[in-house]
Amino acid sequence: MSNATESRAARIFAKTFDSAPRWMASAPGRVNLIGEHTDYNDGFVLPMAIEQRTAIAADTTNDKTCTLHSLTTGDTATFEINGELKPGEPAWSNYVRGVIAGFQRLKLPIKGFNAVIDSNVPLGSGLSSSAALEVATATLLEAMTGQRLDPVRKALLCQKAEHEFAGVPCGIMDQFISVMGQQDHLLLIDCRSQKGEPVPFDNPALALLIINTNVRHSLADGEYGKRRAQCEAAAKTLNVRALRDSTPKDLEADMSKLDPLIHRRARHVITENNRTVEAAHRVRAGHWERVGQLMYESHDSLRDDYEVSCDELDLVVELARKIGPTGGVIGCRMTGGGFGGCAVALVKADSAKAISRDIGESYLARTKKHATTFISRPGAGASLAETH
């Protein structure tokens, strides 16, 4: 087994089901360097797969019963896969059910199976634990059915599962990077053409430090859908297919037509698209100082124009700015949907531990909450091993 998560899933599977698993499928979470809330506006994003993964140890059964045991939540889901699948309890099982339903639509026969799921992707932190579970499930089902899906089709199937079974109208970024991530590369994804362009990130002197605020504000419920509707309203007023097709100049020219709130939402998306494309170019060129500036600009825009940050995320970014380049911090911003979750900092690798400690201590002193930090290099996408 390649890591502790896979080893634990295999061990518990053998203990629970009295035999070794036949397959081990795994898929990574992700962190987005820059390009937030642009994906559902047909724009650009620049994520990477993280080294933390969700693993599924599994084998087929002789009936149509699916039994899933989660080591992360400690509970078990059991359901029949005869006929059309519907969402059910526990809620996390819907990510798996939705992917199975997607394979059924492709007329691929799904047998019953037993599975043990383990993950070291932090839940509810904006690192796409849901996409990791969906993509790991799709990778397992490819093995079970003997049908490899085209990577884009696989990612879209997983996205549809999240829309229909979890009720989250997410863009394509999370599933795409979980399927297509490459070691030592970011991926510049054009969310309209659904094409990904690998961007080398192989400088050993640099790393990404992910700081989990360990807060999740209930305000997040419903706000994602609201932002999406506001962007659609802005695009309609600006007479473009999506905000990706508008420029800062267009936006200012039509400012009088837009409600001030809708104007701010559109301004974030339009400027964030420009920042993301520039950031990919700057990473390739090794212009790290400019990459850091773009990250800070992105955070400010998410905080002020898109209003999806929160006090804890703002504090982490403020602490990172104070440490600054002399202490090894090049740039920092919130990452993910917002209202809590994680910030990501581009740091000098040899300073990462000290930065992590300094931010953690200051954050605790100011909030009375513990932040969780980890360092990641760009990791690989989904993988499958047949164990016997």
What does this structure look like?
42% of the residues lie in helices and 24% in strands. The chain has eleven helices and twelve strands. The chain has 388 residues and is an alpha+beta fold. It starts with a helix and ends with a strand. Strands 1, 2, 3, 4, 5, 6, 7 and 12 form an eight-stranded mixed beta sheet that branches. The longest helix has 26 residues, at 260-285. The model has no long low-confidence stretch (mean pLDDT 94). It is globular and about 65 Å long. The protein has a domain at 4-200: Ribosomal Protein S5, domain 2, CATH 3.30.230.
Could you name the CATH class of the domain at 4-200? Alpha Beta
Overall mean confidence score, pLDDT? 94
Strand content: 15-25%
Gross morphology? globular
Biggest β-sheet strands, sense, barrel: 8 strands, mixed
**For the terminal residues, how far apart are their CA atoms?**
12 Å
Helix content: 40-55%
* Proper CATH architecture of the domain at 4-200: 2-Layer Sandwich
Helix/strand class: alpha+beta
